[in-house]
Amino acid sequence: MKGFAPILVVLALLATVPLITSSNVVLNFMVMALLIALVGQGWNLLGGYGGQYSFGHASFFGTGAYVTGILQMRYGVNAWAGFIIGIAAGALVGAVIGALSFRSGLKGSYFALVTLAFAEVLRIVASVAPITGAGVGTLIKLDLRSEAFQFQSRAPFYWIVLGMVGVSLILTRMIEDSRFGAYLVAVRENEDAARALGVDATIVKLCAMTISAAITAAAGCFYAQYYLFIDAGIAYGPWISIEGLLAPIIGGIGTVFGPLLGALVVKTLGELTKLVTGGAPGLDLVIYGSVLIVVVAFAPRGIAGIFVDLRRRLSGTRGRSRD
Amino acid sequence: MLSPVILVPAVLNGLMTGAVYALIALGLTLIYGVLHIINFAHGALLTAAMFAAFFAYQWLGIDPYLAAIGLTPLFFLLGYGLQRFVIGPAAHGEDRNILLVTLGLAVVIENALLYAFRADTRTINLPYAFNVIEVGTAFLAVPRVIAFGVVIAVALALWLIMRFTYTGKAIRAVAKEKLGAELSGIDVAHIYAVTFGLGTACLAIAACLLMPTYYVNPGAGNAFVLIAFTIVVLGGMGSVTGALVGGLFVGVVESLSGLYLGESLGQIGIFVMFILVLLFRPSGLFGERA
Predict the structure, then answer these.
(1) Hey, which residues does A255 pair with through a beta bridge?
(2) Which of A127, A305, B189, B270 has the most CB atoms around its CB within 10 Å?
(3) How would DSSP label each residue in B134-170?
(4) Is the Cα torsion angle A172, A174, A175, A177 positive or negative in sign?
């Protein structure tokens, strides 16, 4: 179980937050940060480990959110069942988009473009289709029972989303150690070489995209339960695609803890901006965009990369003094 | 089936709209053809140019068509500076990084505009905006006819630059063989920035052509750029003729699908076409590379 200890420690520490404070502001902040961490972890699996940069993870987030919401409100399905079906639906959308684009050999900018286009198509469809409530959106009825996946206080929501982040962390760690993970990294580093060595790159990318979409859809399902309202702009809007890729890139792309670290930093920055400017629209995203450029320019491996460099430098000096 | 009396004007109007699409796509494809990157900041830069044209009229009373004379060099410099001092250095020569940097720029520009000007939609009222000229059975709006003419002139000018000037030759050399161009003494970073500047300058012209009939808000450019992406993919990434023909084609398709299916579905039609082309013919209808 080597390598899982840090994950468990971090999870245990984070789990104490609702015991320390019952402030709704703090808990709400942490829930949103963990939600972004979850989306980021999904993105990271495909983008960080697989090297396929998606600009349209909103497709999966929105599908998860709408499927849980619509199943509950229009078909009377239990919220927990809707949650599971929402994840499956998101994974299916991921598999379909993945199959279409990877089989056509789309990569790099083309892949980014096609994922962006799919998210936009879904957003436009959702904003006119009657089943999604079109422009009005989908409202989930208030029903504060745990059977309905709704809770009086924010603490249970917090623990649930933390649990989901925990599962995604452990899953990522397991993938890192697995043969599949090695294939995925090989495809990222040099797809042609990986193919030459017998790796079925298309299948590997497709699996990564499906898992990635499932994780992101889970975040979407959770969002719907937490806010009880979604519309096309929230579910399929570009904000979630951008925050979802920002978190791993800032935290450390292709690392287990990168998305969590990045999400906390991004959300803190966002809140600070709101505090300073009094919630003027747009400014938080200006900061996010600038941070994205600065990180790519000066710390391409994110905060985690900075830590690794520091440790290497420290151990390097220690090594020399021993000589 | 509709009668030619309706069909012909729809096609002609489609061609006029398509010309502006073509110009936006031209900038995109030029940058792709030389730098081999998709500029995700194209839409945000177009929005910025539209705001510039709007305020040139609102504050200084300059007609958008006149404003183009000043805005085009200004946006050339802006594009040059962005590539030379932001995108180039930040990307460390990695395609994946360029993607992220241009995305970051798009987010910054778009939201800075949102912060500065709010989400309000603005229009300018020009006395000649609703003038029409009669061509056979069709009535064409004057601003659209002007736009069509200007786009043809710009395309011709770009072709002349590419064909006969030293810079044009250098751009073509870098597009074809970057290392070879570098070895023969061409300053590649400079050429990259010039190309990016030319692409951005196209946007300034397009914005000035759009403003007499169109509105501007912080998201206005995006609608056009998704269409431009479609055109560029359709025409083949990096192909200038492809962008022109593709632009006119998409303009007509949009006009006709709007006629038959209604406005909101017409928009989806373009996306569906885009995805289909990307999936089944990513090299485009006129593309050279497989």
Answers:
(1) none
(2) B270
(3) EETTEEEEHHHHHHHHHHHHHHHHHHHHHHHSHHHHH
(4) positive
Question: Positive or negative, the Cα torsion across A74, A80, A83, A87?
Answer: negative
**E strands, chain B, in order:** 132-135, 138-141
State pLDDT tens for residues A12-39.
899 888 888 888 888 999 999 999 999 9
What are all long-range contacts of A82-88, with beta carbons under 8 Å and residues at least 24 apart? A82/A221, A83/A149, A83/A218, A83/A221, A83/A222, A83/A225, A86/A217, A86/A218, A86/A220, A86/A221, A86/A224, A87/A214, A87/A217, A87/A218, A87/A221, A88/A214
Give the pLDDT band of residue B90 (cuts 50, 70, 90): confident
Of the candidates B107, B113, B279, the beta carbon closest to that of A289 is on B107
Distance set, CA A269 to CA A118, A294, B227, B235 (Å): 29, 14, 34, 42
Which CATH number covers residue A212? 1.10.3470
Q: What is the distance between the alpha carbons of residues A282 and A279, in angstroms, rounded to a whole number?
A: 9
Q: Do A290 and B89 touch (CB under 8 A)?
A: no
In 3-state terms, what secondary structure has residue B128?
coil
pLDDT over 50 at A322, yes or no: no
Q: What are the two backbone dihedrals, phi and then psi, of residue B13, each rounded to the nearest 5 degrees?
A: -65, -35
Q: What is the mean pLDDT of residues A114-127?
A: 87
CA of B109 vs chain A CAs: smallest distance (Å): 7
Work out the pLDDT band at A79, boundaries 50, 70, 90. Answer: confident
Where are the alpha helices (H) located in chain A, listed in sequence order? Answer: 5-15, 17-20, 24-44, 58-75, 79-103, 109-128, 154-177, 179-189, 191-196, 201-227, 232-236, 238-251, 258-277, 283-298, 302-322
**Nearest residue on chain B to A295, judged by CA atoms?**
B90
What would the two tokens of residue A261 be? 């670290």
- Torsion on CA atoms B87, A280, A33, A302, rounded to nearest 10: 20
Answer yes or no: are the C-beta atoms of B20 and B255 closer than 8 Å: no
Of all residues in chain B, the one with the smallest CA distance to A99 is B279
**Contact at 8 Å (CB) between A184 and A102?**
no
Contact assignment for B279 to A104 by CB distance below 8 Å? yes
CA-CA distance, A125 to A119, in Å (whole number)? 10
Containing B4, the helix (H) or strand (E) segment is helix B4-35
The predicted model scores a pTM of 0.85
Domain count, chain A: 1
How does DSSP assign A106-122, residue by residue?
A: --THHHHHHHHHHHHHH
Spell out the domain ranges in chain B. 23-218
Question: CB of B28 within 8 Å of any CB in chain A?
Answer: no
Helix (H) or strand (E) holding A230: strand A229-230
Give me the amino acid identity at A3: G
Return the DSSP state at A88: H
Name the interface residues of A facing B (CB cutoff 8 Å).
Answer: 51, 53, 55, 100-101, 104-106, 108-110, 112-114, 117-118, 120-121, 124-125, 128, 242, 245, 249, 280-286, 288-290, 292-293, 296-297, 300
> What is the ipTM, given to two decimal places?
0.84
Predicted local distance difference test score (pLDDT) of residue A301: 85
Task: Please give the residue range of the domain that contains residue A46.
Answer: 5-322
Query: Residues A39, A57: contact at Cβ < 8 Å?
Result: yes
A295 touches A249 (CB < 8 A): yes
Alpha-carbon distance of B109 to A319, in angstroms, equals 47
